[in-house]
Records
---
Amino acid sequence: MIGRLRCVVLDCPDANEPALSYQRLIGGEVDGPDPRWTVGEGCVVLRGDGGPVLASQSVPGHRSPVRGAPEQRFHFDVRVDGPDAAGEAVLTPGAVPLDDGGGDPARGVHADPAGHPFRLARP
């Protein structure tokens, strides 16, 4: 091993929107004081309870990823206890549905406010 994953950083037009959206979805503290996770000006950091650190950074001229296109390289799986209720609740923080999962809310794919995809997953 030559290193450890420090955090995942999402490029976006406005760093605050994805950070607050994911905070409502997975909890944690946005931009709290912790010098270990300062990623630079124009960045917002979301730290959870023992989970991964997620940062978003404002990038001028950012273009949202297009689902299924070559430039979409990843998506997040977010484990939820009640996928039916989570499917509705996930839309309130600014997420938009991309795919209804064939009618199964736990398989539906959503996009955060900057267009990054995530899927609700069963425990």
---
Amino acid sequence: MAVLKIYKEVSDLVDALAEYICDLAEEAIKARGEFTFVLSGGSSPKKLYALLASEKFRSRFDWDKIYFFFGDERFVPEGNPERNSLMAENALFKPLAIKNSNIFKVDTTGTPEESAQKYAEMIAKHFGEKPIEFDLNLLGLGDNSHTASLFPNTSVLHENEATIRSVYVEEVQMERITMTAPLINRSRNIAFLVFGAGKSEAVFHILEDQSGSADLYPARLIAQDAEKVKWFLDGAAASRLTETVK
């Protein structure tokens, strides 16, 4: 079972997650000389990214040793307001003056399939001869139980290869580029950031409900190993769980 970290206030949750990220980064830089950080999209992590760029955290380590990746991306042009990378750029990269060479964005100039292939190649090139194991993969959770762009009843849920895939999501009528569940699960650490009462049903289905399948509740495909997976929740998101606060 994954470790649950439950907080009364979202501000406390985000602060605790920022501390956790900084601790992991310091350990990774000391051990391997870099910290590979997969960012989540959507609106939930915006507060976290802004906090990491604030005076409280920005001096904790050398940001030149942090390499940023994206767990998924909307297949829209560079600069489109719907891109996950644009939110991260405004909230995190620009305030910290992160070098472009440390940011691995999804190139959407070709077809979705070409975009996925190029992103997989970029990641492989960075890791070189080393196994592809991200130091931290940050994930969110949709109210329909999706995470990254692993949406209910999509073909990518049955992908067994640890790679990047394109997928058309009928629910949002959009092509997406996403890490597959096997690639996410290779990460050394995985953290879910989930808050709000609107997510409580999805949290319950992933963490406690025994009915249904991963086709209905895709985030179940993500490992729940207590050694590396932590869920950072507020009280509202955790309200349907019987698990006590950790």
---
Amino acid sequence: MKQVIIYTDGACSGNPGPGGWGAVLKYGAHERELSGGEASTTNNRMELTAVIEALRLLKEPCVVELYSDSRYVIDALEKRWVYGWKQRGWVKSDKKPAQNVDLWEQLLSLIARHEMHYHWVKGHAENEYNNRCDEMAVAEWKAVKRCQ
């Protein structure tokens, strides 16, 4: 299987508020950037959307090294919390409803076809790809805000 490295980030001005997401996909010497935004969203929704949109680009099963500064995304996947939420009818262990179920369902469907490896990276630090994703995400929420 091909190995793909994906970096993602989401950003929001207010929570909820205008938001943006960014992703960088790396395959060998090839790199692709993508980003988008929404008028009214949350930071966690943008973090999830970045991962979803990046995985949608993969045309075949791959070994995916996913890097994100979102503990929400990385912990829910790596520690398999999201599978427990789903098994309990999208209820968390504290008996509160899970948030962003629509996005988690999309994400679970996408990751099922890949061999996934999860990596948390410190945000706003020295990781050039995480910083680039942050730049794109912020630019997207600013663009959305200007259009409102």
---
Amino acid sequence: METSKFLDAKGLACPMPIVRTKKAMNELEAGQILEVHTTDKGSVNDISAWTKSGGHELVKQEEENGVFKFWIKKGNN
């Protein structure tokens, strides 16, 4: 999957991963994909909920060795 921007939010505690994700999404055009890596377990629910409420699409989500990875497609708003 081709990503337009990568955000390393590993080691950050809630709410910083979501704050940084929101800031990074503002720099993208509609349809572009942001890849986010976090280590905060709370970010799994937070990013999923924020993505839906913000009109974006969570394209893919996985966990690998304690790192949570998200691919978020920016919506049209």
